[in-house]
């Protein structure tokens, strides 16, 4: 039986969490096909959906990891590449419907869901244990498109990547934002 997405699997990024939920849903549909009479075409459709969505998700997840300065980004990116390569290779080597069902089960359960359950939870662990800025909620898309300004706090060697909107509030309105770890106000790098 496949695991289901729960709040405990949240990486505390709404866009990534929604994508993970969708991946669990697609993987569940894929896994369900392994116990039914289905055609090769039905399995190929779900595999294409899974592969396409996985590629989109990996791109967004890598951008998120970059935005929080995740130290294992390159290693994680390599794992993503390996999953896509293995998925593509597995599909290319299919000989019959039973083989196709077996590959589908492996892709759905082992590669994707175990990756989320193990590897992606390391991203959340890092996010939870590092210096975070207490800033108002902004959408993932807004953060990705905005210019970032470097700020520092009292944490050693920590640089906060502050969105331009927040930088403007600090500079023009005298707003104060504190590091969640050291509780000290952040300051423009070089001040």
Describe the structure.
The structure is a single chain. With 191 residues, the protein is mainly α. It folds into two domains: 7-133, Up-down Bundle (Four Helix Bundle (Hemerythrin (Met), subunit A)), CATH 1.20.120.50; 148-188, no CATH class. Helix content is 61%, strand content 6%. The chain contains six helices and three strands; from the N terminus they run αααααββαβ. The protein has helices at residues 14-33, 40-67, 73-92, 97-129, 140-145, 164-173; strands at 148-152, 159-163, 187-188. A three-stranded antiparallel β-sheet has the order 2-1-3. The longest helix has 33 residues, at 97-129. The radius of gyration is 20 Å and the shape is elongated. Residues 133-138 have low confidence and may be disordered. This is Hemerythrin-like domain-containing protein. Belongs to the hemerythrin family. GO terms for molecular function: metal ion binding; oxygen carrier activity. It comes from Helicobacter valdiviensis. Residues 14-123 form the Hemerythrin-like domain.
Short note summarizing the structure:
The chain is mostly helical and 191 residues long.
Topology:
Elements: H1 14-33, H2 40-67, H3 73-92, H4 97-129, H5 140-145, E1 148-152, E2 159-163, H6 164-173, E3 187-188
Helix pairs in contact: 1-2, 1-4, 2-3, 2-4, 3-4
Characteristics:
2 domains; 191 residues; single chain; 6 helices; Four Helix Bundle (Hemerythrin (Met), subunit A); 3 strands; mainly alpha
């Amino acid at each position: 039986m496949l695991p289901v997405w729960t709040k405990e699997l949240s990486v505390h990024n709404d866009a990534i969490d929604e994508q993970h939920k969708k991946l669990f849903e697609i993987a569940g549909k894929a896994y369900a096909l392994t116990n039914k009479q289905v055609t090769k075409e039905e399995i190929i459709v779900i595999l294409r959906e899974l592969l396409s969505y996985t590629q989109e998700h990996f791109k967004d997840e890598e951008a998120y990891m970059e935005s929080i300065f995740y130290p294992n980004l390159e290693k994680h990116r390599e794992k993503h590449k390996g999953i896509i390569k293995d998925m593509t290779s597995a599909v290319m080597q299919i000989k019959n419907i039973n083989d196709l069902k077996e590959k589908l089960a492996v892709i759905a359960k082992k590669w994707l869901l175990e990756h989320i359950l193990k590897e992606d939870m390391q991203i959340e662990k890092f996010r939870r244990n590092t210096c975070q800025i207490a800033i108002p909620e902004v959408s993932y898309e807004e953060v990705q498109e905005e210019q970032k300004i470097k700020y520092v706090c009292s944490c050693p060697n920590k640089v906060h990547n502050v969105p331009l909107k927040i930088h403007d509030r600090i500079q023009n309105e005298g707003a104060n934002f504190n590091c969640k770890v050291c509780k000290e106000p952040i300051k423009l790098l070089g001040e």
